[in-house]
Amino acid sequence: VGDLEPETVVKIASETLPRKAGNGNIPRDYGPPEESAAASSRAECKMEVSSPLFLAGWKCDVPPKGRYGIRQNLLGDLAFALLAGDSSPLYARLYEKGLINKSFGGAWERMPEGACFICGGESRDPDAVAAEISAERDRIAREGIAPALFERIKKALYGSRLRGLNSFEHICMELCQAYFDGGSYYEFPELCDRIT
């Protein structure tokens, strides 16, 4: 993707890639299927740093492929933003209590054989941050999300995806990932609109 001549790309690919196509049906080996629970609940390393750093994660089921997988990625991004994104009530509370600073961030991450929510940054009390995130997750499961907050975060997610179309690198990566997952990246506007 970019400001280039397609013929030049085809010429370079023809000179570089093998002349005979390989068997595209060979499955990749990502190792044995993982358990649904995390392999370890905690790992800690003592080092001389000015402020403790932490990374917390919550393992999720393997997302599906195809159109439903693209929708699942949208849902994962939306869920993280609603739970702990920088516009969420939780983020404001953690910041106000001094448990996090501007270094805090995170995301929904999807891999070929799994997915997770991760967040991290500097904190004087990482355990308190993880406990607050879990408590907020439980609260949202019980009480739901305020409709105004949901719409605001959903519009922000949609806007972020649209801004991504200004980046050739972003478009290329998203198109390839969607293609190899059996979907189309350009379906995101319709799929995003249907999320309630």
Order of helices and strands: HEHHEEHHHH
How many individual β-strands? Answer: 3
Main β-sheet description: 3 strands, antiparallel
What is the gyration radius calculated from CA atoms?
20 Å
Helix content: 40-55%
Distance between the termini: 33 Å
Order of strands across the biggest sheet? Answer: 1-3-2
Shape: globular
Mean pLDDT: 88
Uncertain ranges = none
The proportion of strand residues reads 5-15%
Structural class: alpha+beta
* Number of DSSP helical runs: 7
Question: In a few lines, what is going on in this structure?
Answer:
This protein is α+β, with helices and mostly antiparallel strands and 196 residues long.
Describe the structure.
The chain is an alpha+beta fold and 196 residues long. Helix content is 47%, strand content 12%. The protein contains seven helices and three strands; from the N terminus they run αβααββαααα. A three-stranded antiparallel beta sheet has the order 1-3-2. Strand 2 and strand 3 form a beta hairpin. Helix 2 crosses helix 5. The longest helix has 19 residues. It is globular and about 60 Å long. The model has no long low-confidence stretch (mean pLDDT 88).
Q: Tags for this entry?
A:
alpha+beta, 3-stranded antiparallel β-sheet, globular, 196 residues, single chain
Summarize the helices and strands and which ones pair or pack.
Blueprint: H1 6-16, E1 53-60, H2 66-84, H3 89-96, E2 105-111, E3 114-122, H4 126-143, H5 147-164, H6 168-180, H7 188-193
Antiparallel strand pairs: 1-3, 2-3
Helix pairs in contact: 2-5
